[in-house]
Amino acid sequence: MAHDRQTASGSGIVNLIAGVAATGGLLFGYDTGIISAALLQITSDFGLGTAGQQVVTSAIVAGALGGCLVAAPLSDRLGRRYMIMFAALVFIVGTLVASFSPGVVILVCARFILGLAVGMCSQIVPVYIAEIAPREKRGQMVVLFQLAVVFGILVSFIAGYLCRHHSWRLMFGLGVVPAVILFVGMSVLPRSPRWLAMKGNMEGAFEVLRRLRSNPQAARAELDSIIAMHDEQAPWSALLQPWVRPAVVASVGIALFCQITGINAVLYYAPTIFAGVGFGESSALLTSIAIGVAMVISTAFGSWAVDAWGRRRLLLRLVPGAAVSLMVLAIMFGIGSTSGINTWITAAAVVSYAIFNVGSLSVAIWLVGAEVYPLSCRSKGMSLVAATHWTADLLISLTTLSLVQALGAAGTFWMYAALNLAAFVFVWRYVPETRGRSLEEIETALKAGTFNKLT
């Protein structure tokens, strides 16, 4: 009975820590998703054309690219916890500036500031959670970050719909609330035990592990394995070492395909695209809410499946469904889908695509990136993953409306369908199975050259 109480206590603390840290994901989702609804009003208020809409939308992505690169050396030097708290402060500043922007230039700057915070969270939070979670629950714990992201997106869609008759400034301003929660919550949480060990503070690392694990013996055994694999902080060039390369290929490849398979094209521009083909503004915003609900449900499923099925199997099972959904969507836009049964088929195809894509690639990106790198370059490796994600996201956000104009909606979705099929081939060839293995076991496989044989 005593052991059971200890286990429950340790598990409860880990769940609390992961939940508070994942609030950074909620901010990530809200601040990237709210532009979907706000853009309809901002375009009218500031007289934006296609280029202006894409700049306002992509400013947060440009900031995120910078934020994730800056976060790596700072999180290695200052610690994961302090950097998450700093990101929360940046969220607060960016939200206030966006809410009171007098013109489009200040709004773009505010969106860039928000992007810095989003980028920092995308790099730090998954690493922090992965480094405090026990191996058997690491999958669902890290995916909690992505679940918070899509929940934040859903909240942004709902807020956009409810505030459609009010100012877009209110839509942005609501983001202050979770930012304050994140800052206050992180101020009382422990530091990463693996970061403490990397800094040579073994006593501090053991104290944290003793709080997080079921008993002191389990904490000591885990610390011993960390010490056995302990390396000093490595420079960026460590990512070029041949033995690290399989981790780079797998994680960066998933990050790239997560974006170029089209999810953020749907996320950012769904209301604009649907309004352009005949849906009313309210109907377009309601369609976005349906997409948000689908994303939350599929991510919740994915958080179970990454540990029950495994990372690799989840991807191989769901990605083909995303490709088929986009093919149906392309056909509907090709024949005209704004009346009768075609409208429902179009909406169903969008929701189905969101379920299959978000439940697979979007679930795996932060998890695989946070667990495949050795401790000495984990933070920098995760920055590379995040930078790949945001670079591809920037490309998508800057070109989606132009692609729709050049290729038509049908041609654009055919292209994304082909990219989903390419993602399936990549996963089958380069992504191993890391379920149930400790971070130190994964590092051992990298050093032994057996990483790609993990199945």
Report how far the terminal alpha carbons are from each other: 36 Å
Q: Ranges with pLDDT <50 over ≥5 residues?
A: 1-9
Q: In which range does the helix fraction lie?
A: over 70%
Give the rounded overall mean pLDDT.
85
What name does the CATH topology carry? Growth Hormone, Chain: A
- Based on secondary structure, the structural category is mainly alpha
Global morphology: globular
Number of helices: 19
Summed up, the domain count is: 1
Biggest sheet layout: none
Element order: H for helix, E for strand = HHHHHHHHHHHHHHHHHHH
In CATH's first tier, which class applies? Mainly Alpha
Tell me the total number of β-strands. 0
Q: State the CATH superfamily name.
A: MFS general substrate transporter like domains
The second-level CATH architecture is: Up-down Bundle
| Percent in strands | under 5%
**Radius of gyration (Å):** 21 Å
Question: What does this protein structure show overall?
Answer:
The protein is mainly alpha-helical. It is 82% helix and 0% strand. Helix 2 (23-33) runs parallel beside helix 7 (138-162) and helix 7 (138-162) crosses helix 17 (340-371). The radius of gyration is 21 Å and the shape is globular. This is Major facilitator superfamily sugar transporter.
Q: What distinguishing features does this structure have?
A:
Myo-inositol_Transporter, transmembrane helix, membrane, 455 residues, 0% strand, mainly alpha, Growth Hormone, Chain: A
